[in-house]
Amino acid sequence: MFLENTVNHKEQFGWIEVICGSMFSGKTEELIRRLKRAQFAKQRVEIFKPSIDVRYDDEKVVSHDDNEIRSTPVPAAANIPILADGCDVVGIDEAQFFDDEIVRVCNDLANKGIRVIVAGLDMDFKGNPFGPMPNLMATAEYVTKVHAVCTRTGNLAQYSFRKAKSEDIVLLGEVEEYEPLSRGAFYKARLKEKVKGMEVNDVEDLTSNENLFDAQG
Questions:
Q1: In angstroms, rounded to a whole number, what is the distance separating the alpha carbons of residues 15 and 26?
Q2: Cβ neighbours of residue 119 closer than 8 Å, sequence gap 6 or more
Q3: Is the full-model pTM beyond 0.90?
Q4: CA-angle at 165, arms to 102 and 132, nearest 5°
Q5: Are 185 and 217 in contact (CB under 8 A)?
Q6: Which pick of 23, 93, 137, 216 has the fewest CB atoms within 10 Å?
Q7: How far is residue 28's CA from residue 78's CA, in Å, rounded to a whole number?
Q8: Catalytic one of 17, 30, 94, 179
Q9: Looking at domain 15-147, which CATH architecture does it have?
Q10: Is 141 part of the annotated catalytic residue set?
Q11: Structure confidence by residue, pLDDT tens digits, 24-55
């Protein structure tokens, strides 16, 4: 459970909070909630997002349920420190799309006394750790993993299954391109894709594949 620490207690150092999870899990919603609380407290807040993310708005950070907050799009993590000068709180959305420099940037900001709140996908569509997120999670003081609801089982979902036929790691999309799946549903869906791509030489091969699918389901 995340206990929100909002006071520095005269410390010279800030801290890093990471909000991670699958598509449609509420990462951006939680990021916006924390940032708006800081704004309400009259803290100096600046929000950044990668400039490639223009799904809802060119400049605002917008959640899937249309909650929004003003942000500054940046092409690279190296642009953030100068723009964050004088801030009490820095928010960063879609951190997985930044280069590895984002890890150093976040730690430098925290070392200067800034509260850094980062949101991003922890796994790509193949279920592998996504970009700089593992290192951000390792160096953060607080990590909150949020979950979606699996569209096929109703269980907690932590995987972002890509329905679109693309092997690009970075593919911006919504419900048309992705759906949140639980571990079991994700494994079945990925295995089914692999079976479809196999060349079946005889009935025995097909039976073997079906048995493998059932056994791992």
A1: 22
A2: 18, 19, 20, 27, 28, 30, 31, 91, 92, 93, 94, 95
A3: no
A4: 10
A5: no
A6: 216
A7: 22
A8: 94
A9: 3-Layer(aba) Sandwich (3.40)
A10: no
A11: 999 999 999 999 999 999 999 999 999 886 55
